[in-house]
Design a protein that fits this description.
single chain, alpha/beta, 5-stranded mixed sheet, about 30% strand, about 230 residues, 7 helices
Length: about 230
């Protein structure tokens, strides 16, 4: 099985090739560049370096959200365009699931947080149980104070990762009463390798979409939609 992974849900842009349990190639940039300028060249480069053609993939796995509205749209357009052109299925991988998936066999609760502005974060809660990845709380948009309350009530150690950590770190240190850790740079941001790896599991389970069926999951209305809703009240 061969999976092309695409991740563009935040500042990070990333593309990867996963083949039969091996991460053959990954190209990740966490810098202020427009994803529309970077994703296709990244995909072209990893295919060129590994002497492969996109048409040899079995599926395209793409981070499906939550995240940046613009980033998710660019990732979706890239994945759908390739899938349509190459007649490949799409695997929709929730952004937060793929982030947490990087912390293999962690004994702590895994708590990715993405900055959602307005005092909120995009968040999910995950654990590994006997080598099995378990989703305890699916992706949601929530106030960080509520997340901290839940973690304090649960009582166990926690691993935090994501671009919401620098924004929320002061509150975490002040209000969280259970042991916690901040994931290192190697696993604290989105990576297409994780999207492709988790996408391979979903592919094996038959969780596939036609290109025209795929749409990002934003969890919240965009700024423009919120402004329009407020005007119509």
């Amino acid at each position: 099985m061969k999976i092309l992974g695409i991740e563009s849900s935040s500042l990070t842009a990333s593309a990867a090739i996963w083949e039969d349990g091996i991460l053959t190639a990954e190209y990740t940039v966490n810098f202020k560049k427009t994803h529309s300028q970077t994703l296709l060249p990244m995909i072209d480069e990893i295919c060129r370096m590994t002497e492969q053609e996109p048409k040899t993939m079995d599926a395209i796995a793409v981070a499906s959200g939550p995240g940046s509205f613009t980033g998710l749209r660019i990732g979706a357009a890239t994945a759908k365009g390739l899938a349509l052109a190459l007649a490949l299925p799409v695997v929709a991988v929730p952004t937060l699931d793929a982030m947490a998936y990087q912390c293999f066999d962690a004994v702590s609760v895994i708590c990715p947080i993405m900055d959602a502005r307005r005092g909120q974060v995009y968040n999910g809660l995950y654990e590994w149980e006997n080598g099995r990845f378990c989703i305890k709380q699916p992706s949601r948009a929530i106030d960080m104070a509520e997340v901290i309350e839940e973690l304090n009530a649960a009582g166990g150690p926690v691993i935090f990762l994501g671009d919401g950590v620098p924004v929320q770190e002061e509150q975490i240190r002040a209000r969280l009463h259970v042991p916690f850790y901040l994931a290192p740079a190697t696993m604290n941001r989105q990576r297409a390798g994780a999207v492709a790896s988790l996408g391979a599991e979903q592919y094996a389970q038959g969780r596939l979409l036609k290109a025209e069926e795929f749409a990002p999951k934003y969890l919240r209305p965009s700024q423009a939609e919120r402004v329009r809703q407020e005007k119509n009240r």
